[in-house]
Design a protein that fits this description.
This protein is mainly β. 0% of the residues lie in helices and 48% in strands. It contains no helices and eleven strands. Strands 2, 4, 5, 6, 9, 10 and 11 form a seven-stranded mixed β-sheet that branches. Strands 1-3-8-7 form a four-stranded antiparallel β-sheet, with no helix packed on it. Strand 4 and strand 5 form a beta hairpin. The relative contact order is 0.31.
Length: 131
């Protein structure tokens, strides 16, 4: 069974930082790209970042570029999202999702892949940015 479990969310003041973690099990980690998405109730999901674990290449959404960094530890089947200079508009549920490299051959293609092509996603972790 494929499982992705996120952790690290919480309440932070504007300008603060958080580090989210995503642990992946039930699949061959190096065969998948891992995307981070966020969603606010009533809105469509927004692509935050993506990493192709086989080569470590990354891609970011325009709203988080230069503030967020994603990385992976292939030995631990972990993907991280370091979020700096957080803003109130970053408030959302963040979740990670896995998609095969046969579908997404480059990290730049992660956000355009329809959700049904993703192998699985986690339950999400709430990030709230507020003073």
């Amino acid at each position: 069974e494929v499982q992705l479990v996120e952790s690290g969310g919480g309440l932070v003041q504007p300008g603060g930082s958080l580090r989210l973690s995503c642990v992946v099990s039930g699949l061959t980690f190096d065969d998948y790209a891992i995307g981070w998405f966020r969603q606010v109730p009533g809105n469509n999901r927004e692509g935050v970042s993506c990493i192709t674990t086989r080569d470590g290449k990354t891609h970011y959404g325009n709203s988080v570029k230069d503030r967020f960094t994603t990385s992976s530890d292939n030995a631990k089947n972990m993907v991280y999202l370091q979020m700096n200079d957080l803003k109130p508009e970053d408030t959302a549920v963040y979740y990670c999702a896995a998609i095969s490299h046969t579908v997404v051959v480059a990290s730049t293609l992660c956000f355009s892949a329809p959700e049904y092509l993703y192998e699985s996603r986690g339950q999400g972790t709430q990030v709230t940015v507020s003073s």
